[in-house]
Sequence to fold (194 residues):
Amino acid sequence: MSRGAEKDRADDQRINEIKEQLQQIAGGQMIAAEFDGLDTKTRRMFWERVLEAESAPLTTDFDRLLKAGVALPEPASLDDASLTATLWDVIRSLARMRVFLEQTNHLSDRELYTHLWHRSLREEIPEQSEDDESVWHVQVLGTDTDDGAQLYLKFYADEKARTEWQADWPEYIMPPHEEPPYDRDRRLPQPGSG
Fold:
């Protein structure tokens, strides 16, 4: 057996061990899918990350920011200028932690900071080691609710996405497209932007 074949066999064995551990964590209710065409090393690395995420203790970005020394005053305690400065400090600090915000142009600075302070930053996430390849995307919009879907379709969806949505749900009342009232997203840090 060649070295490559031995390594692939070892990787396959490790993948099976990880899947067994994940089945136990999920109480036998794990649903899994894989991309076709991945080599065994990449598949093993993927499953190792899944196991790390599923077995890690939970934290929040709020706690991670506090530990990093970022001030997070209650939104109502800030005047508009201080709030905007604090918001951008939070945005830049999140980016350093490889957490990136998306679709925020429908919210004022105060609305966004208030949303982050009360909701997004308080969501429990797995406490994992940070690396240069992993990123978290915070969907401020949240399309899993009707309000989020309406906002997405109104402010962010292009004509193709709106047409596809309407084809999938013909009874859905499509809101007219509008330009978002704020222009922040183009200035948000992005993965790989330094």
